[in-house]
Input
Amino acid sequence: MFVSGFIAVVGRPNVGKSTLINALVGQKVLIVSPRPQTTRNRIHAIYTGEDAQLIFLDTPGIHNPRHRLGDYMLNAAREALKEVDLILFIVEADSLPGPGDRKIAELLKQVETPVLLVINKTDMAAEDFETRVLPRYKELMAFRGVFPVSALHGQNLEPLRSAILKQMPAGPHFYPSDMVVDRPEEFLAAEIIREKILLRTHDEIPHSVAVQITAMEPRRKGELLLIRAEIFVEKESQKKIVIGNGGAMLKEIGSLARIELEKLLGNSVYLELWVKVKKDWRSRENVLRQLGYSDKI
Ligand SMILES: Nc1nc2c(ncn2[C@@H]2O[C@H](COP(=O)(O)OP(=O)(O)OP(=O)(O)O)[C@@H](O)[C@H]2O)c(=O)[nH]1
Ligand SMILES: [Mg+2]
Output
């Protein structure tokens, strides 16, 4: 019997939601960074096996909205909980449940969808994790199962995978077998560039960075592919940081991104990056819409 279903992955920012999905899908389809609020859009990451198709909904971390972008991210996470077959609630093994986790548990209690608790980052857990930390998470709400894992190191993922499969109803292929993500290449390309910016810069470049692909020339196998992208920041000072001394930072971001883009697209890539200032884009709805952050996706 072929089973298939939709699995929403929720949790506070930075707990490892995207890392876990990449591990379960078996390839890097989602961007990951040490900075909270890396994921900004709802993305479906798709695993297709012989007997099953699992569609994971990556969601932005649930937190208190401060900007319009924050409102949008919270709505996206809430929406994802409706009409899915299963919810994975991700928390961190190296800390006790906090107000953020409790708030999410309250939200999850309001939906009827079964919930599996995934306690991630067990590689960073303290010695007394089992006696001191684990019980505290278990009492947050009623879970269908509890799975301590390390998404980063691929530890203990098999019991989790079996439990997920067990919850899936009989169903069709919702997506073609060779599709791993429900977004066009331009979106993935922009995400990869954004990941490299988040990795290379620090707090001075907060979430006020967005990337838009303005050209991705049609290509034939073996030809050089031109990708032109615009990087938006909020202030002149941030533009200087992203460009760096004599363009050094931008060059580094560009070459890291290019390597990954070439892997993704199977072509040699010529990457052209432009940095632009768009004041206050996080709070301006029309700008958000232009950049693809719309509630209606
Ligand atoms: N030590 C350790 N680090 C991990 C593990 N899983 C994820 N991380 C790290 O945690 C950080 C955040 O990971 P993400 O996957 O981007 O987290 P997220 O929950 O998707 O974050 P947002 O999209 O910002 O909500 C990254 O630096 C990951 O490498 C793990 O099992 N162990
Ligand atoms: Mg993420």
Residues 17-18, 38-39, 58 surround magnesium ion (ligand 2) (CB under 6 Å). The mean pLDDT is 88. The chain is about 35% helix and 20% strand.
